[in-house]
Amino acid sequence: MNITDQRIDGGKPFDWGRTSADYAKYRDIYPEEFYQRIVALGLCTQGQDVLDVGTGTGVLPRNMYTYGAKWTATDISPEQIAQAKRLSQEAGMNISYYAAPAEKLGFPDGSFDVITACQCFWYFDHEKVIPLFHRLLKEDGRLVILYMAWLPFEDELAGASEKIVLRHSPEWSGAGETRHPIEIPGCAYAYFTPERHEEYDLEVPFTRESWHGRMKACRGVGASLSGEELAAWEREHWQMLTERAPERFSVRHYAAMAVLKRKNVRRD
């Protein structure tokens, strides 16, 4: 399913389904601290119904499954959902998955204690999803927005990898990340009260293969390049890694979290 959004990559189409196999293999990279910070706030734990939107291959619900929440997860890409189901079934996890856009979720009002959105919130039509999320949450429910990104100006390998992506995908708008709080759209304040935000650094371990796979599974590479373009990117990126990277290394990232509390306002 091609997605075109003028806010992203200059409107260049991308399709997460094209990279789902690599996404499933290489994008499950969040350190345990990432999940522990959520649990420390009493979120996504035993007795709670949680909806993960934009779940991809189910990374968040699968890694937080042992904390006891009942998980439901959705994604716009059927291929991503297929991988999420496979990985969850192989692990013996009872997680309900649905292929659906975030703007068109059909769950009953007041179904969830928590809604999570990890690495995906900016893709949504906020004017549509914010009131929808408000309706789907129970009283005093929480919307948790999560993000993690490498820091190309502080990590040499991350910066080198970005430069190679931009040579092959110059429209890619995912480059040049710096630390910043998650941006909350103005329309959210009628429905939610900002409760907490935090930003912190992480060292994420990789091998040459896993970092190469992580980069391949990003929007500017595997999800958008043609077969010929992708092959050229693979050759150049792998050569850079063999020349400059040890077999095992870490990449500096920062993570961010914003927690919004549902306001008690009339459902539209």
Strand proportion, as a percent range, falls in: 25-35%
Task: Report, as a whole number of angstroms, the end-to-end distance.
Answer: 30 Å
Summarize the main sheet: 7 strands, mixed
Number of helices: 8
Tell me the structural class.
Answer: alpha/beta
Sketch the topology as an H/E string, one letter per element.
HHEHEHEEHEHEHHE
The average pLDDT value, as a whole number, equals 96
Helix content: 25-40%
Shape: globular
Low-confidence stretches: none
Rg result: 18 Å
What order do the strands of the largest sheet run in, or round the barrel if closed? 3-2-1-4-5-7-6
* Number of beta-strand segments: 7
Summarize the helices and strands and which ones pair or pack:
Blueprint: H1 20-26, H2 32-39, E1 49-53, H3 59-64, E2 70-75, H4 78-90, E3 96-99, E4 112-118, H5 126-136, E5 137-150, H6 156-168, E6 192-207, H7 208-216, H8 227-244, E7 248-262
Parallel strand pairs: 1-2, 1-4, 2-3, 4-5
Antiparallel strand pairs: 5-7, 6-7
Helix pairs in contact: 1-4, 1-7, 6-8
Keywords:
seven-stranded mixed β-sheet, 268 residues, alpha/beta, 7 strands
Descriptive report:
With 268 residues, the protein is an alpha/beta fold. The chain is built from eight helices and seven strands; from the N terminus they run ααβαβαββαβαβααβ. The protein has helices spanning 20-26, 32-39, 59-64, 78-90, 126-136, 156-168, 208-216, 227-244; strands at residues 49-53, 70-75, 96-99, 112-118, 137-150, 192-207, 248-262. It has a seven-stranded mixed β-sheet with strand order 3-2-1-4-5-7-6. Strand 4 (112-118), helix 5 (126-136) and strand 5 form a beta-alpha-beta unit. Helix 6 runs antiparallel to helix 8. The radius of gyration is 18 Å and the shape is globular. The model has no long low-confidence stretch (mean pLDDT 96).
